[in-house]
Amino acid sequence: MKNYTFYIQGMHCASCVVLIESELKQVAGVQTVKANLSKRILEIEGDFGEKSEKDIAQELSNYVKENGYSFSTETQEQKTKWSDFKIAVPIALGFLALFIVLQKLGIVNLITTDTVGYGTAILIGIIASLSTCMAVVGGLVLSMSANFAKEGEKVRPQALFHIARVVSFFVLGGVIGALGSAFQLDNTGTFILSLLVGLVMFLLGLNLLDVFSWTKRMQPTLPKHISKRALEIKKINRTLTPLLLGIATFFFPCGFTQSMQIYALSTGNFWTGALVMGSFALGTLPMLALLSFTSVRMHSTITSGIFFKTAGLVVIFFALFNVINSLVAIGIINPFFTF
Asked: Is the pTM for the entire model greater than 0.90?
């Protein structure tokens, strides 16, 4: 057994850590594996015979390349491609203009809560399904689809997965909302939770911009062992596997999901929390369904720096929008959004 250290390309969030470690632990000869998000390195212990480090890096890359990751023996300087903003800013502004129009027409928040409309939750879900924090779910969907396809099942398992995912987000979102009522949050408590939602989303947006390296260390996430246990369900080769995997995605380290979960907690109501999380899950459904039923590779659709920066700008807007609404609700500032 020897210890090796490789540099990782393609990492963006805590989901990437879970996915990389989960995939490489199944490789023959690998004893232990640890991915580090902030340093973007892979520490691995294993027996690879007389292979060179470059050959080992290439071999390991083959197990995760479908999800957009690769390993190398030399570090690569991370440079911000500022020219992407020339395209990302106009696109983001156009999206936000569309959001404002829909808000003005009453389409985005057909049913409104205090600060986050259900239509808005769907939009956030759409952004989440296209961004890097869904990489682990996308990789899981692709893996599950491929395994069941070998057995001749190309529709039923995928359909069960998506149904279980939407239903579990609805039910568990309701449970979180009900738990919030047990705390009997006053206006101050609700205000603090709303600020926390905004902060989580703001950090997500900054991370997607890929400008500040420190944002990766600031991302809140569930304890890693919880996410790993949830991901290990895919090893169960039974009829219940798709259903269990769909439920398990509620516990994966996606910052978007966590921000919605925090908001659901702040509602203090079962039905409101359920509808917020259910709406968010519906927003993620189209892209994930496309992944599972067409086997479109996740990395081929999200590698553009322009897309990440556009998504980051939009997420930052939603974060600031939520914070400002919270400040208005508690009476600290007067409303200045008229839409």
From this structure: no
